[in-house]
Q: What sequence folds into this?
């Protein structure tokens, strides 16, 4: 079958003009330069939003499943406060456990580390993959020694 359309799709003769080549080159550079910076800006805004949600208020563990066993009651009475400087405290009565946290929007993870904490707080030391989240709750999971742990946090 022969093509019957005789209208040129692209006028390649224009590309031979040095001014046209320069304009196309500059346009491509501008597009290439803007795209990464817009993406970075959006990621930074998402990171800021994540930090704002996490650091505004206190959180409690409403579910912790370790290798299929529900150990949520061991977190009863603990309240967690995440701070914008990357620190976190877990408080139960007069007992305070200090740690660090960081969130990664791109990977959808939160990392927590309580280096000197005892059980059950030491069970939070991990990189947690966020599986669901709202402004007042987070569901996450992690795998430790081939065992999957599930964590749900709710804002008080």
A:
């Amino acid at each position: 079958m022969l093509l019957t359309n005789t209208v040129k799709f692209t006028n390649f003769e224009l590309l031979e003009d040095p001014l046209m080549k320069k304009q196309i080159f500059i346009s491509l550079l501008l597009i290439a330069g803007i795209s990464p910076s817009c993406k970075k800006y959006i990621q930074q805004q998402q990171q800021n939003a994540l930090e704002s949600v996490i650091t505004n208020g206190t959180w409690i563990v409403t579910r912790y499943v370790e290798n299929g066993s529900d150990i949520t009651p061991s977190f009863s009475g603990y309240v967690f406060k995440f701070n914008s400087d990357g620190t976190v405290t877990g408080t139960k009565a007069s007992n305070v456990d200090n740690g660090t946290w960081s969130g990664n929007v791109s990977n959808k993870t939160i990392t927590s580390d309580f280096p000197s904490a005892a059980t059950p707080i030491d069970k939070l030391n991990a990189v947690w993959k966020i599986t669901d989240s709202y402004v007042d709750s987070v569901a996450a999971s992690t795998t430790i020694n081939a065992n999957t742990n599930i964590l749900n946090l709710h804002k008080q």
In short: Residues 1-15 have pLDDT under 50 and may be disordered.
